[in-house]
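Hi everyone, sorry if this is the wrong subforum. Our group has a chain we'd like a structural model of before ordering constructs, and none of us has done structure prediction before. Sequence below.
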Amino acid sequence: MRPLDILGVRVEMPTNTPIVLLKERDGARHLPIWIGAAEATAIAYAQQGVVPSRPLTHDLLVNVIAALGDRLAAVRIERIDDGIYHATLVLGSGIEIDSRASDAIALAIRAGADVVAPPELLDSAGILLPEDTDDEVEKFKEFRDHVTPEDFESDPKQ
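Answer:
Right subforum, don't worry. Here is the predicted structure as tokens:
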């Protein structure tokens, strides 16, 4: 398994579809995962350190796992089937739970858990970004630091 860093959430143009971008920690490959608006908001909230007055769904699940005496040890992004990413939550006790990749990533951020993927997935779905993308990465980080949940809401007039 290869460790991945969660770079953040962005909106893919021209479709306005949110994606979460992961990067191979000791490599150059990136793994873009198309996600829903709610999951994009949950990931962005966690990365920005937003603490809601009451637990949101992903916060609640992390709290439930802890209350049951366990912890989220890792998230494995297992495979992609027909454009859908499949993940597994790996608890400290060894229990494994099937999950959507977007939910698993939102939980991993909150729990401080590692995100990993098999090399075969990175071989098939990973992308290499050109070396001169440092400026783009900085723009992405700037976007991530200033994105709000409202940025992912649909305009009902469209």
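For your construct planning: The mean pLDDT is 88. The longest strand covers residues 2-12.
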